[in-house]
Amino acid sequence: MARWTTADDAVSGIRRLAERQLRTAWQKLPAEQRKKLRQSIHPADAAKVKRTVSTLASAGALSAVPVQKPVIAISVIVEDSTQNVVATLKSILAQKSAPLEVVVLDTTGDDRIAGGVAPYVQRDGRITFRSEEGLSTPAARQLAVANATTRWVMSLTAGDILAAGAVAAAIRSLKASGAELAVGTVGVRKGQKFVTPVDQSALHGTENLTTTLKHSPDLAGDAYLSNKVFSRSFWLEELAGVDTDGALWQAEVVRTAYLRAATIDLLPGRISDVIGDAGSDSLTREQLCSTEILAEYLQRMTRVMAEAAGWSSPDLTDRWLTRLLGSDLFPFYEVVPRTDDSYWSVLVHGTQELAALGSIAWDDVRLHNRLILAAVLDDNRTDVITICGSRSDLGSSFATAFRQGALLAQPPYLAELTRRPSEELLTCQDVDLRVTSKITGLDWNDDGSLRVTGHAYIPSIDPVAGALAIEAAVIDPDGVEIQTLGVERYREPGIDWDANDNWTSYADSGFTATIDPATLLAADSTTSSWSLKLRLKAYDRVLESAVTRRETAGAAGTVPIAPMVGERRVALEFKPRTGLTLVRVAPMYSATAVQLEGRTLTITVEAHSAPLASKITVECAKLAIRKTAVCVDVRGNVADYRLVVPRLAAEASPRTEHQWDLRLDSGFKTPQPIAWRPGSAAFEHDLDRSRRLRLRLTGYGFLALEERRYRVEADDLTVSADGRYLTVLGTADFTSIHAPRLVLSSGKSVIEADQVSLNVTRNQGSNRFTVRFPLVSTPWDGQELMPEAGAYSVRYIPQKTEDNAGYWIPAAPSLQASLPSRELRDTLEVGLSRTAA
C-alpha cells in the first residue's frame, strides 16, 4: 500500500493512480467505443458524457462475459459473401435493456466473413460464430433455433439492420401478452432511405395490439422474418416440420406461423430495415420464368391453403385465397408470354387446384388482375398474353362507360380478346376506383382564413360525363366532420400534365376551398389537429380521401405560416396518412420585437402560460456550440434579452446551412421555443433575409437562426425578349468585395457570364449583384448556336474552386413567389428546383 507523508503527496498519488487506471481502461476499449465517446463529448453539456458513460458501462457490451442471462437468441445467416454482416452485428449490439446472445452462421465458407466477425467474437462473449459451408438457408435457421436455449428467438439475414430499441419493445410485449409471435413493421429501401410500406402502417396502427389471424387477415401480405420475434417452443413444435428443401421455404413458414399461432402481438414500431430478407416474395425474372420455382410455390401455397381451409372460418379462407390468386400469383401470370407450354400447364393446374379450396371474392381483385385470373382458370392462354402485353402501356387507368346503371370498364384490349368477359367481371368495383388529388396552392387571406387550391378526380371517370362533384370538410382525428367547406370549381388544362392519362381530360377537376381556423380554435380546446377530407361523387359512385399530395415547385412548394390568434395559432403540415393537417400550436412565449444586428440578437418576449425565463440560449447542436445570456429587463410578463451569437467553428462546411436553436429556460419545464406573432409574409417583409446569419421560422412558427459561410441568393431572373440573354439579380454576403463568379453549369459544359457587377453599399451584410449570361454563341465566327440541350444550374464558384465543384444558388422567397412554375422562351425553359441548396 502506498504511503504519503503530506496531504499534497496523498492528493498527487491518488491523482496518478486514477490517471493510470483511466488510461488502462481507455486502452482496453474497442476502437468504435472510443470513437463513440469522443463524439459524445459536448463542451456545453457535460451531462451527455455522463449518460453515455453510464449507458456503456451498464450495457455489458465491454465485458467478455454476458452480465445477465440472455432471454433471446438472435441468429444472423450469411447467404452471400457480399452481405454486410458487420452492419447487422452493430445494430444488434446497439440494442439496450435486452439480454441477448448472437450466433452468426456462415453458409458461404468465405474466410472474409470469419475475419470480419472475429473481432466481435473475441471481445464480446454474447457472440459466437459457426461456419456451415454448403448448408441451405432454411436448414441454417432451423439449426440456430434448435441450438438456442433462450425463451425467444429471432432470425436475421446478414445486412438487415435492427431499429434502436426494437428487441426490448418486442420482449416487453411478449412478456405481457404471452403470445407466440411478435410482429413489427419493416423499412424497405426507397432511394437512399428506408420507408415503411403503407399497408403495414395501416395494419399495425399506433399502439400495441394482441390479435389473431382471424381478426387481422392482412398479415398474410407480410412474409418477412427479420421483423418477427418467435417463442422458441412455438417454432420447434409448430414450424420445424415445414419442408426446408427448395428456395421458397420462407413464404410457407411465415404463413404457417400466422395460421398456427394462438395469439400474435402487432407492434406499431419498426423492427428492422430489410436488405437481405427475402420476405417481399420478390423473385428475379429468371426465377419467375422457372417451371420448378412455379411448381414449388404452388405446392407450398396449396399446403398452406389446405390447412387454412381445414380449421379457419370460410370468410378467412376466402380472403386468403383471393389475395393469393388475385395478387400474389400475379408476377407468374405476367411472364406467361415468355414461357413454354409446360409452364402454362403447371400454372393452370395449380391455380385450378387452389381455386377449388374456397370461393374467390372477385370484387376484391383489381380489373386487370381479375380478367387475367379468369382467363387462367379458363385455360385461355391467348387472352392472358393479350392482356399482359397491353398492361404496360396503360398502367392502372382505363376507359369506362355507364350503361343501364352499371359503370363498365372498357380496357383497350377488350376487342382483341377471344372470349369477351362477362359484365360482372367488367363492372368497376370499389377496388378499381380511387381518388387522385393534389394541393397546388396554400394562401392565408387577410381575414385569417386559409385558401386551399388544388384538383381532385377519379381516374377512369370523365369529370364532365360523370358530372363530378367535389365536397370538402375538416375532420378531427376520429373522422368526425367539424367544418363543412364551401368549394368553388375551376378549369385548368395543366392538370392533364399531372394526370398523364391517354383517354380523357381531367382539366375540369380543379377546386378551391376556404378554411376558417378561428372557428376551429374557438369551438374546441382539446383537439390537437384537424385534417382535410374530400368527397367525390360521379355517376353512382361516392369516394372519400385525404389530400396527401402537394405541388413542390416554386411558390406552391412553400407552406405559409399564419399569424397568431390571441395566444394560439394553426400551423400546416403534411402527413402520410391524413395529408393536409392543421395543427393547434399554443406557445408559452411569443416575441413582440426582434432585432438582429450583425451577430447581436435583441428580443422582447411576452410570457403566456409559463413564468418569465431567466436565461436565453442559442445552440448549434451539429457543431456543439452553445451560448447563454441572462434577461436584461423585466416589465410584468414581458422581458428583454440580448445575446451575441457565437461564430461558426473553423471546420464548419461552406455547403451546409447550419441551424441555431433558440430557447428560453425558466426552470418550469424543458427549455421552450419562442413564437413569432405575425405570419410568414410579415417575416419575409420585415426582416433582412439576405445575410449569412439570419432569422428563420420553423414550420410551427417558432424563431430560430440559420447561417452559411457565405450566402448568395437569386432574387430575380429574366430572359431577354429575343431569348439571347439570361439575367440574374441577387444578393451576396461574404467577406470579399469582389463580384461573385457565377456560371451556368450542366455538368458537361459551363457558360461563363459576360457581365458581372456588385453594388457595394455596406461592409457588413449583403450587397446586390447582377449577372448576365449569353445563351447564344458563335463559334469560329459562324452560325449562331444555342447551348447544348440539358439542365443548367446557376452556380457560385468561390476562389480556388473548380467549376464543377461550385455551389447551387438558392432562390429567395420573392423569386419563388414571382416564378411559381415555368417561364418559356421558345426552346428555353427557366424554372425553380426544390433541390436542397
UniProtKB/TrEMBL annotation:
Q: Which residues form the Glycosyltransferase 2-like domain?
A: 83-201
Q: Give the matching Pfam families.
A: Glycos_transf_2
Q: Which SUPFAM superfamilies match?
A: Nucleotide-diphospho-sugar transferases
InterPro entries found in the cross-reference section: Glyco_trans_2-like (IPR001173), Nucleotide-diphossugar_trans (IPR029044)
Identification of the protein by name: Glycosyltransferase 2-like domain-containing protein
Source organism of the structure: Arthrobacter agilis
